[in-house]
């Protein structure tokens, strides 16, 4: 009988276990893409993506994926993957003196999610409430300002944002890096408060007044502010002007809507800028990279885009760019990375929006 795995330290969503001389591993994420691999020691295993994994004991081995990605087993029980998911690591400690080594690789058609969490994924942690001030601006049944400083434009009044948006003070706005982040807000201390939480998305910046003096302040759209009220009492709550609310950072959920990339009107063959919309999960972005996928491109390397303002990211290449483009996103909160492959097609147009097949 084989020894059970006692502990497993993971940075890539891999679960491993060993029973009756066989090692089983699964590459998991929240979309439930489960790729089981089972192999006797010293033999090969095949997963659902036709990637070959070799498992041996006592020495380094290499596993080659069907799409050219590779992983190798290092001495000490560390499995490290190469191209495909960057540098992922997992180490297993076994109950006997023998070490069994595992190589793994997760690859999907348009997605490669690699995890270097600075914080746990928002979907996996509980809700932690804090206190903030809240006001509202714009029309009583509107979406705040006309699009806001994040650059989403009239999308803020349409589904899935549906005008449930907020401007935020500098303590949470973080120079626009938090554009797209989602919060729940609720009020309980006014007679018209329902006590029910309303989910809002950061789409704008609040530069003065209580937004600066409060440790945290939400300047909500009229729609979002009224949504905290009891049925039929939205106007009464809005008349209160300033409220104390409870707020909590939560995962964004757009009911399966895929990512959208809206090309800025000023983009051309040498300069590419875009707004990233509808990121689920963390919602915010720490970094965006672009890769030219055309054979005419000088190199197939990722090129870092810079944050122009809000949710607008740009690449001033200084020479002609060759589409199609793949886009790599890195979230601000947990550091999760996602690739939308070939999402910007040949013949792209300024002002057009392009949808990926993937989301966090």
From TrEMBL:
Keyword Secreted in annotation: yes
Please give the Gene3D superfamilies that the UniProt record associates with this protein: Expansin, cellulose-binding-like domain, RlpA-like domain
Q: Which UniProt keywords apply?
A: Secreted
Residue stretches making up the Expansin-like EG45 domain: 147-257
GO cellular component terms given for this protein? extracellular region
What does the UniProt entry say about where the protein is found?
Secreted
Q: What SUPFAM superfamilies does this protein's entry cite? A: Barwin-like endoglucanases, PHL pollen allergen
Q: Which family does it belong to?
A: Belongs to the expansin family.
Name recorded for this polypeptide: Expansin-like EG45 domain-containing protein
Q: Which organism is it from?
A: Acer yangbiense
Q: What is the lineage of its organism?
A: Eukaryota, Viridiplantae, Streptophyta, Embryophyta, Tracheophyta
């Amino acid at each position: 009988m084989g020894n059970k795995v006692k502990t497993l330290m993971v940075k890539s969503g891999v679960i491993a276990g060993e029973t009756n001389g066989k090692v089983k591993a699964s590459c998991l994420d929240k979309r439930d893409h489960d790729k089981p691999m089972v192999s006797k020691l010293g033999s090969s295993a095949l997963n659902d993506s036709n990637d070959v994994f070799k498992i041996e004991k006592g020495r380094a081995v290499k596993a080659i994926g069907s799409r050219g990605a590779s992983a190798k087993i290092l001495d000490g029980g560390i499995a490290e993957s190469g191209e495909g998911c960057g540098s992922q690591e997992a180490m297993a400690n076994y109950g006997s003196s023998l070490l069994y080594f595992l190589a793994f690789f997760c690859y999907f058609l348009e997605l490669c999610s690699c995890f270097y969490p600075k914080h746990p994924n928002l979907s996996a942690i509980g809700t932690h409430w804090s206190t903030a001030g809240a006001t509202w601006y714009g029309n009583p049944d509107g979406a705040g300002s006309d699009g806001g400083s994040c650059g989403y434009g009239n999308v803020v009044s349409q589904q899935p944002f549906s005008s449930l948006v907020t401007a935020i003070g500098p303590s949470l706005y973080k120079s626009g890096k938090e554009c797209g982040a989602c919060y729940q807000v609720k009020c309980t201390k006014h007679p018209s408060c329902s006590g029910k939480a309303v989910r809002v998305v950061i789409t704008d910046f609040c530069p003065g007044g209580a937004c600066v003096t409060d440790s945290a302040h939400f300047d909500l759209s009229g729609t979002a502010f009224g949504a905290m009220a009891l049925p039929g009492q939205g106007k009464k709550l809005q008349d209160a002007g300033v409220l104390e609310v409870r707020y909590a950072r939560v995962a964004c959920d757009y009911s399966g809507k895929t990512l959208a990339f809206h090309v800025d009107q000023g983009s051309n063959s040498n300069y590419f800028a875009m707004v990233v919309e509808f990121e689920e999960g963390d919602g915010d972005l720490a970094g965006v990279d672009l890769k030219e996928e055309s054979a005419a491109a000088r190199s197939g390397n990722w090129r870092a885009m810079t944050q122009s303002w809000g949710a607008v990211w740009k690449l001033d290449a200084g020479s002609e760019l060759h589409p199609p483009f793949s886009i790599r996103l890195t979230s601000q909160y947990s550091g999760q990375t996602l690739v939308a492959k070939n999402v910007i097609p040949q013949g792209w147009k300024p002002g057009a929006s392009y949808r990926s097949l993937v989301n966090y």
